[in-house]
Structures are given as C-alpha cells and as structure tokens.
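Project standup — Tuesday

K.O.: blocked on the structure for the chain from last sprint. Re-posting the sequence here as requested.
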Amino acid sequence: MQLIPDTIDWQAYAQQTEAKVKVKAASVFTDELLAEFAPRDPKHKPAEMFSTKLRDRIEFRPGELTAWAGYNGHRKSMFTGQVALDLITAGYRTLLASFEMQPARSLARMARQALGGLRPAPVSLQAFSRWTDGRLWMFDHVGRIDPQACLGVCRYFAQELKGAHVFVDSMMMVCGSEESMDEQKQFVTDLVRLAQETGLHVHLVTHCRKPQNGEGTPPTKYDLRGSAAISDQAHNVITVWSNKDKHLALQKDPSDAVALAKPDARVCVEKQRNGSWEGAVGLWWDSASMRFCDDRMSAVEPYRLAA
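H.V.: unblocked you, prediction finished:
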C-alpha cells in the first residue's frame, strides 16, 4: 500500500486544485455575456430609488455592497429608510438591521415617509403594517453586535427567508473601535464575500470623520471614518450631506429667497463599480413626511400600498 507522504503542502495543493477548476476559457461565459446585453423584461422592476432623481442612475444589484456615508446627524438613516421603501415597493424582500434605534421607531419614520404625513391615522398605520408582510423584516436588537453574529443574521435572511436586501445600520455598532482597522477590513471583506455567495445586496451605513473646517463642505469617499477598505472594497459608495447652513439662514429669516432656492441635501454617488453614472444630485426635505424630494415644489404623495 502506498502511503501519502507527510511532506505534501496541502494548502498549496488546494490552491492548485482551485485554480484548475476556476481558470476557464472566456467562451464558457457566453450565456452570461448575452444576458448582459439582453433587453430587460418590461415587467421587471429594477432595484433602484424611484422616489428621487437618483432613479435610472444607480441600481442596487445582487451580490454587491453599498456603503452609505456621511457626517453624524446628516440624515443617512432617514435617507436609507426611503431607499428601503422604494425597494420593498418594487417587491424586494428587505431586512432592516438598525442597531441604533428600536424597530418601532424605525417603522414610525418609514410609515411617515410611505403615508406622506406627520401623524398618519391609525387605520392607515394598520394598512401600512399589513402591507409590510412578506416585504419588510426588522432585526430586533439595539446596541453592539459581534461581527460574526451580524454576518449570521444576513446569511439567515438570504438563505431561510429568501431575502434580497439587508441594511446594516451602522458600522460603528459592529466594529466599535475606530482604531481596529484589521477588524473593520475583515468585516467588510466578509460582507462582500457574503453578498457574492448569497446574492444579497448589503447596504452598510457608516460615518465620516468630523471635518476640521466644519460641516459646510460635503464629504467624499476619502472621508469615511476608519479603514480605507470600506470604500475600496464596496461596489458602491454614496454620501449623504445635509445643508445645515441653509437651515441656520432660514431660522434667522424664513423668507430668505437665496436660502430657499438651495437644496436641503446633497446625495453623491462617489463610486459605482458596475454602473456608468457617478455624480451628485440636490434634494429637498419635507419635514412632515421625512421624505427627500426632487425639488421644493414637489407634492408628497403616499406610496401605493398595493397588495
């Protein structure tokens, strides 16, 4: 009987075997290539933000990671809540894992955005709650969570509940130390791998460093707090910035025409690896509905809560 020698480098052997399996002729991918250029099914609703002028400019594709970034208090979570509403309206099963806010508070914000008002009637809230069945899930946990536990929640949602989108809000509740660059890099690497393996689109809310010269200048992808791996590995990086100078000007003079003409927020697609558009759009804020609008004259209509 021939014995297997102890001197075999099993790691090197495994890498060679993987290479033999994964190195393929380009023509093997002909079907996938054709699919890239095939006309889109008119019944298909793309995973995009239809409620703002970002529509048709960025799509949240399966197997990708989007980093949502901004200064503290600049309504990142508010904006991503509206993104989630657009996705579930289009039929995408979505999980909101907010570690900074109780589920009921997050739902209250989303209900105002969906129903278009400050204090929705109880019957409307009940209709909204029924409408979320089979569309929206909440992870009932507030506070710090271990990275592996967070990854486990995402994988469970993808595999057991056939989910399509997960919002992780926020990075600092998973990797608490800004100094632990290795932990952050590993977590983002694991999120990218998880998205690729499951087909999930992972939305990761993260923060930007406090600017030395104030918050009057919008951040860029280079201002993300912590490891550069966040923006390097993410497929998409989108920054959300609130125009607080405008808010201060209107506090002094509510009829200031110059201030009123300026957008309340700037949302910038800093990076879109698999898309063709990058750039910024100005949006206006409707305080009653907590919704972002294309312009200050836009009428806030309720979402169509179809069965």
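K.O.: great, moving the ticket to review. The two ends are 68 Å apart (CA to CA). The chain has ten helices and nine strands.
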